[in-house]
Amino acid sequence: MSNSDLDQKAKSILIENDQGGYTVPTKGLYPYQWNWDSVFVALGFATFDQDRAWREIEMLFEGQWRDGMVPHILFRKDDPSYFPGPSVWGTNGGPIPSSGHSQPPVAATVIRELVDTDVTGLAHDRALYRAGALFPKLMQWHRWFLAYRDPDDLGVIAVIHPWESGRDNLPDWDEALRAVEIADIGPYERKDTSHVDPSMRPQKADYDRYLSIMAACRAVDWDPAEVARTCPFFVADPGVTFIFLRANRDLLSLAERLGRDAEAEEIRGWIAKMEAGAKTLWHEGLKAHVAFDERSGKLTDGISSASFLALYAGIRDETTMASLQAHFDRIASKVRYLMPSYDPDHASYEPLRYWRGPVWAMINYMIARGFAEAGDTTRAERLRADTADLIETGGFAEYFSPETGAAAGGGTFSWTSAIWLSWASPTHAEHAA
Ligand code: GLC
């Protein structure tokens, strides 16, 4: 397929996965609205329909809970082909049936992007107006992260479930997950393994624990303070932490443009706290940021693709920059396609199992932005070119093998299409140049 055919194909995937204002990640495997998927999808729509891009994010925020949380899944209509559905989550925190935790907060960053790219006259005013309407909701969501995912004020953000990280099956969760006692969860039937090859999906022992964490949160009625205090899983995640820190910088830029002085001051405080807090995640032996299990007090021992997001978060001191460049080159000498989700030199690395090795397009996009902003356009371009190659050969798959480039997981994936349109496509790169 030529690049312009691929552009067409990417557009048509977004249009086909559109459910009337929100987009499913892919039909079958993921039949609902997912939080960070939708936000990346907005970047894709923005390349041909700005209004539809805003709508995607606005619909996500329709599901915001009374306490400020924006859920990771909105179950707008029941679909028996997905497990665990709304009755297993048993939540009651917002206007739309939903899961009980959040996902990486990329929204403020993408909203800023939508405002920045819509630079002309009337359209820009309209974009700013829509950003203004979302602004208080973003503030509430960010305050929620600080209150309930960093209750001890460490300046890092924890996840209460591997799924909250968006990187569901990452080796970093293994040890903390093993410490979760399996609750009386009764028999259940997974649906994911009937949609895709079970050898690429999490194992049953993991699934039992995923459901046990949910049972523990249900037992406290998903009360956020109680969840933070008692959840058996509470791990500070470099992915969410860096995405949140970055999002705060973009939220600050919006606050300044919207004339929200008090909020701008509040956000500056968050940024300072998180910049200092990020040091908690630094692993001196590995020379990278890793996860930190707040229950056991232990750092994890592997470099994941999120370690590279330090640059995207604006942490660009010499040590971080030099270490990440060295890790980048080392990993590039091991695999053909960057950036594997886990270090290929680590014992837990598996090139095709969910989040234990495969490459995700939207992670590459964020890492590349970080490198580019830090002045390293060579490594940024390498990530873009690899992402484009993977899509040109494997199509708009959920993820890819870093070794062979084989497409894996679900097909006709929305965020892969969106990232192609907004960043990876050579057509786009030519326009941007
Ligand atoms: C998986 C991914 C998660 C994503 C969801 C829908 O659960 O790990 O990040 O949001 O699929 O694509």
Automatic annotation (TrEMBL):
GO terms for biological process: oligosaccharide metabolic process; protein N-linked glycosylation. GO terms for molecular function: Glc3Man9GlcNAc2 oligosaccharide glucosidase activity. Residues 30-416 form the Mannosylglycerate hydrolase MGH1-like glycoside hydrolase domain. Keywords: Glycosidase, Hydrolase. InterPro entries: 6-hairpin_glycosidase_sf, 6hp_glycosidase-like_sf, Glycoside_hydrolase_63, MGH1-like_GH. It holds the Pfam family MGH1-like_GH. PANTHER family: MANNOSYL-OLIGOSACCHARIDE GLUCOSIDASE. Belongs to the glycosyl hydrolase 63 family. This is Trehalase. It comes from Roseibium marinum.
